[in-house]
Amino acid sequence: MKNIFNQLHSKEILKRIDKLNPNSKPQWGKMDVAQMLAHCSSFQNFAMGYSFPPRGWLGILIGNFVKPMFYNDRTLAKNMSTIPTILIVDEKEFETDKEKLKQKIITFQNNGPEKCTIHPHPFFGKLTSEQWGKGIYKHLDHHLKQFGV
């Protein structure tokens, strides 16, 4: 499984983000490309320890049992529900949100696993830095595939 802490894997993600443009259309889902970039940036805040959303009751109940889906080799399902605090519905600015996400990926990768949050994921609960690294890669890969890159 690829890991965002691996420099080659983070560079690959950054190159794919650079292939997006304001007119990129989703192959599934409701977000436009700028909203997707803002969503991924907000998700990155969890792993970086910038945002601490509370755990929902469903995550508390089943999160521990299903958390391997976050960091294993299996593809994420299309149109999965998302964490309410990072559901982006308002209009976003493509270039601004693209650069913001890229900078967060670079910072996260440069900081390394030791700077990864110890706060639990809002659905899956406690994760190791390796699980976060794989999960961040997998989440970004999922949304980049959503937009055909």
From TrEMBL:
It comes from the Bacteria. InterPro entries: DinB/YfiT-like, DUF1569. This is DUF1569 domain-containing protein.
